[in-house]
Amino acid sequence: MTPVVGFVGLGAIGKPMALRLAASELDLVVYDVAAEPVTELVRAGAEAAGGVAELAGRVDVLCVMVRDDDQVRDVLGEAIGGAQRGQSVGLTVAIHSTVAPDTPAPLADTAARHGVRVVDAPVSGGAMGAADGTLAIMAGGTDDAVAACRPVFDAMAGKVVHAGPIGAGTRMKLARNLLHFIAFAAATEAQRLAEAAGLDLLELGSVVRHTDAITGGPGAIMHRPTTAPLAPDDFWYGVFDHVRVLGEKDLRFAIGLADELDVEVPLARQTLDRLAAGLGLQPSLATQEDV
Prior knowledge:
The chain is α/β, with parallel strands linked by helices. The chain contains twelve helices and nine strands.
């Protein structure tokens, strides 16, 4: 059965996600407190609802992309009140907003008492990924609930991961974004060093984007199923030891340049200290002496 889909929250990422659904073969009903994006979605083929409760009574899967935890709770409460009764499966609510890690489970418990299923399904890829349908969606929930959402997710995303039970999607999103924003902080540190060295920051940025597209960036080392120390006979031991040798060498050179130019690079110093252990290895003797 092809689900009828509802979408609440037509903001910077929600609107392009909904537009992808409107362009699919799925029937779509939308609602937002702002009239303009609703009008745009109607022009794209969706139907408009007068409110969340009305919308929830008309759909099988309800996607929610609102601002914060409180808005998610409010929308879910209205959706539960308006959900149709007597359906063979019932309403499934997919929460795409990034919420606190302890938010999804109690929401799912409350919804279940009213015959409504909840999947926490945050997204990664931003407005660009939403517009071109290449988002990653990380879903947490029961097998049945995630399966009910799967045709909807596939219409909006290039990668869908069932991360585990309810809350697992949110935890995976937070881990992913931890890397994202720490990398941003590291990028600003690299920019300060490059600027002090008289380099063109725009050209540096172009090099970073070019080579990350080739190597995979930080994700290039994320192939192991555990963070436990590596045994010498493990396949990854040699690979990561090579990464460690290159990384420690280049970090020492970069820190030396920063010292020469009087630029603070605390993330680089911490990384030199922690890189080997993070890879599951022991640091080199030279690094141990530096520390």
